[in-house]
Amino acid sequence: MIEMNPVEATFVSKKKMTLEEVTTEETAKLYLETVELKEFLVTWTSTEISCIAL
Questions:
Q1: DSSP annotation of 15
Q2: Which helix (H) or strand (E) holds 50?
């Protein structure tokens, strides 16, 4: 009987994105701009929800 499953240590690598894929509108929707991120973090840290999440 095999003691260790050889498949457990394997992983499937992610497809590397090209510059065109990164700059598409679909991908841009997934990330916040710097100003948006700062606004989100300031709002999040000033609410009671942030205390509960920690």
A1: P
A2: helix 48-53
Q: Summarize pLDDT for 10-50 with one digit per residue, the tens.
A: 888 888 878 787 777 777 777 888 898 899 888 888 876 65
For residues 30 and 52, what is the distance between their CA atoms, to the nearest angstrom?
A: 25
* Contact present, 27 and 17 (Cβ < 8 Å): yes
Roughly how many angstroms between the first and final C-alpha of the chain, as a whole number? 45
Q: How far apart, in whole angstroms, are the C-alpha atoms of residue 21 and residue 31?
A: 14
The predicted model scores a pTM of: 0.41
